[in-house]
Amino acid sequence: MEIEKKFQVKYLPEKMTDFAKKEIEQGYLCTAPVVRIRKSNEDYILTYKSNHPQEEKELKARMCEEVEVPLTREAYEHLREKIDYYLIAKTRYLVPISGGYTGELDVFHGRLEGLCFVEVEFPNEEAAKNFVPPEWFGENVSNDRRYTNSFLSCCDNLEVFQAE
Length: 164
What we know:
mainly beta; 164 residues
């Protein structure tokens, strides 16, 4: 079971170049259920997420089952030609935060340039419930579907966020 919270970003943390990072591109073969392919640096992964992630309103977190399977580069490139909509490109910074957690800070490129958000995964519901976000975290958008990568793969640009 994956339990995560996703937040807007008020401002980027200092010393971004000090953090480990991954250059990611990902696309979706299906969004209901979610079937995603991802290139993360030189790793290639096929991911399946449960059909409708449970949105825990009280926790303000997203919960879903997730299965990951490694792919070869050739398999990834073959499947990349079959994705729906757009390929997402982003840099993911792995930012250590208090409590032993890691903030996965996604900074998007291409048509989503300017968008960034951060998510934190938790070992259980209690940890998610008790989490106090750092100052640089903005609003909790865990239950806002516009911040899901599967939704973003369908967007032409950032106009979807103009309604905020």
